[in-house]
Structure formats: structure tokens, C-alpha cells
Amino acid sequence: MDTRSTTPADPTIAQESLQTVLLTIVTLVNAWLIYRVPWQVSFDPCLVAAVAAAVTIVCLWITRWRGLRGVNFERNLLALFLAGMPFVYVLRYLLSSRTGTASFWAGVELLGIPVFGAFALLGLKRSPWFLAIGILAHGLAWDLWHYRTSTYIPDWYAIFCMAVDLVLATYVAARVPTYLRLLRI
Predict the structure, then answer these.
(1) Is residue 2 in a domain?
(2) Based on the structure, what is the number of domains in the chain?
(3) Distance CA 23, CA 43 (A)
(4) Stretch 27-31: mean pLDDT, rounded?
(5) Where are the alpha helices (DSSP H) in the chain?
């Protein structure tokens, strides 16, 4: 007879293993990219974002170690991370606007704030799938679009952010069943 206590929020061993593997991949991708970052200018928004990504990943590990107690914090953290992504682009634009960058880009960058903010809010209020979709959309649409087309976003950052976003979105998608089970408790 199995005497272990199980609740509806207990993930299966396969789910738990997949989530751990994916978070390990996110960690390795981030660590490799952090190593490759050109650390010449302090307080550059792109450098701050690279550090924020590393801190976020460390926090994700901590929330996983806390089990179910960490799941709500994890969702809030991911929503904050997603909502904060477009601010890097806005700040970089503002810092480079003195160099004659077209004003058209200001509107484009500002548009990212409500778009990704909405994904973050929907990810908290409606379904955690919006977090995964928003992070994936940021990587595939926003970062990829800025690669080699922007005069104020360095190509290394567009690649860095896209790589982290794609792997992180996969991790979040794998965590969705855990988020949903916790909401049912």
C-alpha cells in the first residue's frame, strides 16, 4: 500500500524531470551567453538585462526547491520579467536618440510595453499559457526583429535575449500543468 500523501498539485516524476532538464538548459544557455557579453559599459540597459536574466534564473531554481510554496512567486516573477522586457529596448532607444535614431522607433519601442504587459497580466489573471506565449513571442518577434535592423540594440543582445527567451518559454510551457494544478487547490 502506498502511504505517500499526494495532492492534486503534485507533478509527476516525468513532469518534474522535464522541468528540471529545461531549467538546467536555460541556466547553461544563460551562463554561456553571460560569458560572451561584452562588459565594456556599466549600467547599459542591455548589460543590466543580462544580469537580471541570470538573477531571474537563480530565483527560478530557488522557487523550485521551495516546491508548491514557490509556484505563485515563480509566476509573479515570470510576469514581472516579461513585462520588464520592453523597457530595455525603450531605454536603449532613449540613450541613443541623441545620435539621430529615427523617431519612428520610439513608437515601436513604446508599443512593446502594453503588448508584453498585457501578456504578463493575462498570464497571472487568466492562464499561465500567456506567460509562455508572451516570452516566446518576445524572442521570436521582438528580439529577432531587432537583430541586424536596429542601430541602438546591439546584435549580441538581440541574440542573447532571443536564446534565453526561447528556452525560458519552453520551461514555462512545461511548468503550466503545475501552475494550473495549484490554481485548482
Answers:
(1) no
(2) 1
(3) 27
(4) 89
(5) 13-36, 45-65, 71-96, 104-125, 129-137, 144-146, 155-184
User: Could you give the CA distance from residue 158 to residue 136 in angstroms, rounded to a whole number?
Assistant: 14
Count the residues in the chain: 185
At 38 the pLDDT is: 79
Residue in the structure block whose three cell numbers are 508584453: 116
Identify the pLDDT of residue 101.
Answer: 54
In a domain, 4, yes or no: no
Distance from chain centroid for Cα 134: 9
Q: How many CA atoms lie within 13 A of 105 on its CB side?
A: 21
Q: Show the domain range for 86.
A: 13-180
Residue keyed to cell 487568466: 126
Higher pLDDT, 33 or 81: 81
Name which of 184, 54, 67 is nearest 128 in CA terms. 184
DSSP string spanning 112-141?
HHHHHHHHHHHHHHT-THHHHHHHHHIIII
Whole-model pTM? 0.85
The answer to whether residue 78 is domain-embedded is yes
Residue 172 CB neighbour total at 10 angstroms = 29
